[in-house]
Amino acid sequence: MMIGERLFSIRYTGGSTMKKIVLLLVSGLFFLAGGSALASKSFVRMEQAPVRLEAPANATQGQKIKIKLFVSHSANNFFHHTKLVTLTINGQEAARWEFSGSSLPEAAEFSRTFDYVMAGPITLESAAFCNMHGSANTAKATVGLQ
Fold first, then answer.
1. Residue 89 belongs to domain with CATH number
2. Are residues 90 and 140 in the same domain?
3. What does the alpha-carbon distance between residue 118 and residue 144 come to, in Å, rounded to a whole number?
4. CA quadruple 125, 118, 112, 55: dihedral positive or negative?
5. Do 22 and 59 share a domain, yes or no?
6. Given strand 64-72, what is the order of strands in its sheet?
7. Which tens digits make up the pLDDT trace of 32-71?
8. Which of 38, 64, 65, 100 is most buried when burial is the number of CB atoms within 10 A of its CB?
9. pLDDT band at 111 (very low <50, low <70, confident <90, very high)
10. What is the chain's percent helix, strand, coil content, to nearest 5?
11. How many structural domains compose the chain?
12. What is the value of pTM for the model shown?
């Protein structure tokens, strides 16, 4: 009986400690990976990185315009974050901003600005990519010549 009691005691203590460690680790991962996502109001904003573009509707040839990209991703932390934001002009990549777990965007909602000198009408496309879920959308805009 003494051997059985000793085995039971060892198994119970070891199992309890191991369960506590596993529970603590799993809880920590849920907190880091999804905690901030629970506050989001829409599924798309919670899981992916939507982007929005702002640019003038028209400009004159040779005019310098500002193109502004707005990105929203509520879970910007080490494990789950915006990985990449791109801007293409007439099908050619004009700008790219890359992020990582150690170099995160400054906030859950952030923006980037790109200056462009008009040489003709342009078509803009922008996308933001979550490291876990990809892109929620591709924002599109056009700027015509006056």
1. 2.60.40.730
2. yes
3. 9
4. negative
5. no
6. 51-54, 64-72, 109-117
7. 544 444 333 333 333 456 999 999 999 999 999 999 999 9
8. 65
9. very high
10. 30, 45, 30
11. 2
12. 0.67
Alpha-carbon distances, residue 3 vs 10, 11, 12 (angstroms): 11, 12, 14
Write down the residue that tokens 């070891």 correspond to.
14
Which stretches of 1-146 are DSSP H helices? 2-34, 43-47
For CA atoms 39, 41, 43, 44, give the dihedral sign. negative
Taking the CB of residue 93, how many other CB atoms lie within 10 A of it? 10
Query: Contact 140/123 with Cβ under 8 angstroms?
Result: yes
Phi, psi of 135 (to 5 degrees): -100, 140
Secondary structure of residue 143 in the 3-state scheme:
strand
Instruction: Provide the pLDDT confidence category of residue 75 given band limits of 50, 70 and 90.
Output: confident
Same domain as 64, residue 29:
no
Shared-domain flag, residues 64 and 118: yes
Of 138, 112, 114, the C-alpha closest to 126 is 138
